[in-house]
Write a structure and sequence with these properties.
single chain, two-stranded parallel sheet, globular, about 15% strand, alpha/beta, 7 helices, Rossmann fold
Length: about 170
């Protein structure tokens, strides 16, 4: 199986939609520490964007970065690796005002993250949604698997996998 490092995928123009001529839609996925849910959403989104040739660019960020815990969670990395996606080079990054300004859409793992992002960055209010809210119109938090057994990480993958196709389809038509 050929593994594509996530950090390298957006260097390929088609993977980020640059070949289409139109400015790509830019999405920031946000969770607490940028080591599990948001990394997973970014990695799976990049794979789908590449597969479908969508004009979308994605990043993932932390709402509350722990500088002592910046590597991807082992179970999330393992599940991604099983899908041919290598996130070993990923290092958590804090959401910044520049990220907010340059993102067309900010998708959070939970309602609490959404409220925190919009409280810290009021200019994000019109473009910040939970992932489920943007995909389905209903808010359902993505489970926090941090420190949990593999079954919980598999649940996270199922949740993200359920929302991601709708998210990308909707974002591609913005």
């Amino acid at each position: 199986m050929n593994w594509i490092p996530v950090a390298m995928m957006c260097l390929v123009p088609l993977a980020c939609g640059a070949a289409s001529g139109a400015a790509p839609t830019r999405i920031a996925f946000v969770d607490t520490g940028n080591t599990g849910r948001s990394v997973t959403a970014e990695a799976l989104a990049i794979a789908l964007i590449h597969e479908k040739g969508l004009a979308i660019q994605v990043i993932s960020r932390a709402f509350d970065l722990n500088p002592y815990n910046i590597e991807p969670e082992a179970n999330a990395a393992l599940l991604l690796k099983q899908r041919g996606i290598d996130v070993s080079a990923h290092r958590a990054a804090q959401l910044t005002i520049q990220d907010v300004r340059h993102s067309d859409l900010i998708l959070t793992a939970t309602e609490k993250h959404k409220l925190g992002v919009t409280a810290q960055f009021p200019e994000a209010a019109g473009k910040t949604f939970t992932m489920s809210e943007y995909a389905t119109g209903k808010t359902n938090d993505i489970v926090d698997a941090y420190g949990q057994p593999m079954e919980v990480y598999e649940q996270v993958f199922r949740q993200i996998g359920l929302y991601l196709p709708a998210v990308l389809e909707k974002a591609a038509t913005k």
